[in-house]
Amino acid sequence: MDKHLFLFGGVPPFTLHMAKKFVEAASKTKAPVVLLFVERDGWEQFIPLYTQALEEWGLRAFNYLPLPSTPVEKAIDAIKNSSGIIIGGGDTNLYADYIVETPISNALKESYESGIPIAGFSAGALIIPEWCIISPNDNAQGEFQLRKGLGLLSDVLIAVHFTQWNDEAHLRSAVGTFPNHSNYGIDENACLYFRNGQLEATEGNGVYSLEKGVLKRVDPS
Questions:
Q1: Phi and psi (nearest 5°) for 14?
Q2: Interaxial angle between packed helices 16-26 and 47-55, expressed in degrees from 0 to 180 and rounded to the nearest 10
Q3: Pick from 188, 209, 192, 212: which is nearest to 200 by CA?
Q4: Are 67 and 75 in contact (CB under 8 A)?
Q5: How would you write 102-142 as a 3-class SS string?
Q6: Are 108 and 152 in contact (CB under 8 A)?
Q7: Could you name the CATH architecture of 4-217?
Q8: Are the C-beta atoms of residues 152 and 146 closer than 8 Å to each other?
Q9: Per residue in 169-210, pLDDT tens?
């Protein structure tokens, strides 16, 4: 069973080809796609940003799980009965608090291992690897932070909003902490696609990586 991860460097929508690829992976059952996110005022107005590109490829059924108001057991049940999972963006520390540090994380891991595609946007992408590396631009303390992630990817470091946040120094700090890990800085409107834990494709504005101390653009194709 192939495993699918889509890591976006900013807010939605899905990029064109990644939307198609996600829908193809999520169309093996008629179960809904789960949208898991930390709620904020007016969250309903952001939903079409996540769903519209998928709807254009024929996806119709969605299940919205705002946290923390959705009970954990309800979220777990919805995740286990989904055809795909989208993890939204926002405050990365809150995503770690409400998802990684709860039993929801086990349900996500089980679904991923069973072939359910998972897409993460910004904070949602940051919590997917084994380690969640949080930029000084992404926390109130303005400091480099390290937290446990979901562990769906091993030995991979992710930075988001890369060019927009001018975050090369942040990525260098992450690489200095884990020098033997692969590393990627993902721009807004850009995506990394991993199949079975290996980077297979990119799409969008730009993806970058530090190779022997030199920042280079990534193009797996």
A1: -60, 145
A2: 80
A3: 192
A4: yes
A5: CCHHHHHHHHHHCCCCEEEECHHHHCCECEEEECHHHCCCC
A6: yes
A7: 3-Layer(aba) Sandwich (3.40)
A8: no
A9: 999 999 999 999 999 999 999 999 999 999 999 999 899 999
